[in-house]
Amino acid sequence: MNDMTAINDHSAWFLNGCVSIRLAAAQGPDRISIVEHRMAHGDGPPLHIHHNEDEIFHVLEGTIRVQIDGVDHVLRAGDIAVAPKRVRHAFRVESLSGARFLTICRGDDFESLIAQGSRPALSAGLPPMHRPSTEQAAAFAELCLANHIELVGPPLG
C-alpha cells in the first residue's frame, strides 16, 4: 500500500467507545475521513448537528438505531444511512453484543474532535462506562462547537 491508502490501526477511547481513524482526511485530495467505532449496547452520543459535514453510517457488526431529523432508521450489518450536514441526528447501539460500524465524512471536523477529545486506549476492549459530570459535559459541548458540531439534545433513550 502507498501512503495515500494506508490503514491507520491506532485506537483511542472516545466517550464510552473505541475508535480508529481508518482514513484521515489529510490522506487524500477529496478529504474523506473514515472512522471505525466499537461501542457497547445502549451507548450513543447526544443529539447533534454537523455544520460542515455529511455523516455516513455503515454498520459492520450488530445493530444501531440512527435518528435523522426525528426519523428512526434501524441499521444492521451491511446497512448504510446518511445524516446530511445541518440536520439533527444521533444513534444508539441496539444489539446486546454491541456494534462495530464506520462513520464517513468529507472533511476533518469530526476527526479533529476525536483527536482533541479522546484518550489513548489502555486495552483492546472498551473503556469503563461512565456518565460525564456537568462540568465534563459542558467542556465536551464547547469542544464540539470548536469543531463545528453542535450538541442539541440528549442521547437517544
Describe this structure in words.
It is a single chain. By secondary structure, this protein is mainly β. It has one domain (3-155): Jelly Rolls, CATH 2.60.120. It is 14% helix and 45% strand. The protein contains 2 helices and 12 strands; from the N terminus they run E-E-E-E-E-E-E-E-E-E-H-E-H-E. The chain has helices at 109-117, 134-146, and strands at residues 11-14, 17-23, 32-39, 46-50, 55-61, 63-68, 71-76, 80-83, 89-93, 99-106, 118-120, 149-155. The strands form 3 sheets. A 7-stranded antiparallel sheet has the order 8-5-10-3-2-1-11. The protein has a 3-stranded antiparallel sheet with strand order 7-6-9, with no helix packed on it. The chain is globular and about 40 Å long. The relative contact order is 0.25. Residues 1-7 have low confidence and may be disordered.
